[in-house]
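Sequence only, no structure available. Ideas?
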Amino acid sequence: MNHTSPASLLNPSASRQRGRLALWPLLTGLAFVALWLFTLGSRALISPDEGRYAMLSLAMLQSGDWITPRLNGLLYFEKPPLQYWGGALSMALLGVSDFSARLWPGLAGLLTVGLLGHTAHRLWGPRTGVLALLCGAGTAWILINSHFLSLDAGLCAALTLALCGFLLAQHDQAQGQARSGWMLAAWVGLAAAVLSKGLVGLLIPGAVLVLHSLWRLDFAIWRAMRWVVGLALFAVLTVPWFWAVSARNPDFAWFFFVHEHLQRYLSPVHNREGPLWYFIPFLLLGFMPWTGALPWLMRVRRSDFAEGFLLVWALFVMLFFSASSSKLPSYILPMFPALVLLLARRLEQASCRALSWHLLVPVLAWSGGLAVWLLAEQLVAKDSSPAIARAMLNGVGLASALFLLASAVAWWLLRRQRKEVAVAVLALANSVCVLIGLQAHNGYGLQKSSAELVQAIPQALDPAVPVFSLRSYDQTLPFYLRRPVTLVEFVGEFEFGQAREPERWVPTLEAFVPRWQAAPQAVAYMERPTLAAIQALGLTPRIVFQDERRVVIAKP
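Reply:
I predicted one. Tokens follow.
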């Protein structure tokens, strides 16, 4: 049946104009996705996290062993394998590169943003859905963690699927197959979260469900969880790997469940301590440019099921990790999707006049970046790498100027009641400016990467030439070499693997000397103080690379 309206038949030019206008959001979205993905490979991987997780994926691809994770050739059971699998698959399909190494968190970030837009649309209508999509894409902490290779973007996407699936399954308008489908999607999200980072993938949703039920004194939602089918699906997705890795490695269960979960949370075993307020600065900066609206998000009615659940989710994540003895900035990332959904609801309800006042916070923050750029010459003069510092400060200055210009445009649009367009301008501007800042940081990143170092020692790329790492270890070195290095008098996070496979490393410099002397060709990486130590042992090495911190020697 033809549904063309009479008005369109009478005025075909108006119909074509509406079609062209509707095309612009689609083209803008595609351009944003292209920018998001393209910038994944524009910077070198940096140590430690990016090199670690890139090498874990590469090792799986090279060995064909998708059960037992190995880091630099040694057993490594700190985390489950979902991200390693994703990284190995992207490297198999696209080749080994910085881009393919970061593709998993990049896609995870896009999935998170897409879920937020869809969920807000289904819960509160199309306008709120668009606002959630824009706010998610423009939130600094979601963007940054999606462009950095760690486990947290993948965990966040999995938990967002669990959160959104649960909310959509409990929505009043969800009926029959839709309600059941979204509840099972939530169980899939739980399984993916556990396979991404362990039991925290169950703890966060489970604790929030309990706390929210107690707060509302309502346990009816527990009957809608599809427990039998959901638990069966969860088990099918998670149990096979845990069973297989435990069967092959009898010590896995104790190390993974006790050491990596209980001991890490309850004690400073990994030297990642911080005060109770540790995460507050990361929340305030990470929620830019929407930080000024945070007080709005606390105004939740207990009778509103979805809003209450989102608030409990965000607060629990913040408090849980604040109480932990092991803290890293990215740990609170799973609270940001809940905040974005609350924000989208508030923005849809707020007046343009109220929103214009909230521009002050991001404007002040980016004005600080502009002030830093204006002081560039004084700051560069104090830096040990003036060229790198100048490039970084120029990037900050460009990003700050662009955002301040975009803020003026957004303010002008708000004065004309163009709320959605103003939010879109802010979100796009913040995204572009954050990406500019990340790219400007690449000079400093290269100082914590082996990307350029490996190019200076081509003989190390020969698999027949042994490469040693003396008293130190750069996590990116094996990835850029495309193979493991032999650790010498270095333990760090390798204690578990070294104890079980002692033949894969050299415990002392004294034991390294005869191996070096016996090899016709060899390469060794170290930090500067170690060079004097090996010279004291009688070696007269040939230096092939050095900078302020690192030295590489080679023979012949």
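The chain is about 65% helix and 5% strand.
Hope that gets you unstuck.
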